[in-house]
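Feature request, filed as a ticket because there's no other form

It would be nice if the structure record came with a short human-readable summary line next to the tokens. Right now we just get the raw output. Example of a typical job, pasted below so the devs can see what we mean:
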Amino acid sequence: MEAACLPEWWPGLAPFPRDCWQQIFGNDQPVAVEIGPGRGEFLLASAARTPARNFYGIERSAARAHAIAAKIARNSLANARVIEADARCLLDALPDASVAAFHIQFPDPWWKRRHEKRRLWTTDFVAGLTRALVMGGTIELVTDVADAFALAQSCFSDEQRLERVAIGDPAELRTSFAQKARRRSAAIHRSLHCRRA
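Raw output as currently delivered:
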């Protein structure tokens, strides 16, 4: 697995050590993980706007991961990193209760039947997100695909350690995917779930 900003101690798919975020970022700030950052618009803007939080992107596309890494370097964002990886695999390597927030925006719905195995929304995936969250940590989902949103909400509902704290259209979202959806007059669905104390 190649990475745009991979820690030197990474040994394949072995679990990250408990202090992995300290090793990656060099500080103890809370970490937000974006799954599928695409062009990195949300990741870069969030890192620039919130220097007291670290942002870690997991991007399946090598080209996109490297492009985001170049933007991080160009903008001197010390609190942002990106890795080229399949989030479903990497999620299992993250330490328990180590992530303050997960952001998943406009995930690829993988419409074709042969791509079904790449779809994110399963009870196992949601359980993995929840396991990695700190108490009070959140999972934000934004999508313009109503069926995918409904499936995700069903998986979230099955996870007893989560409670839904918000739902609605994120009016302030300014990524290119959000703009494309609005140009098509597509409804944008958003939910925010919190790990119960």
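Something like this underneath would help us a lot:
The mean pLDDT is 84.
Strands lie at 31-35, 54-59, 80-84, 99-105, 133-143, 162-168, 189-195.
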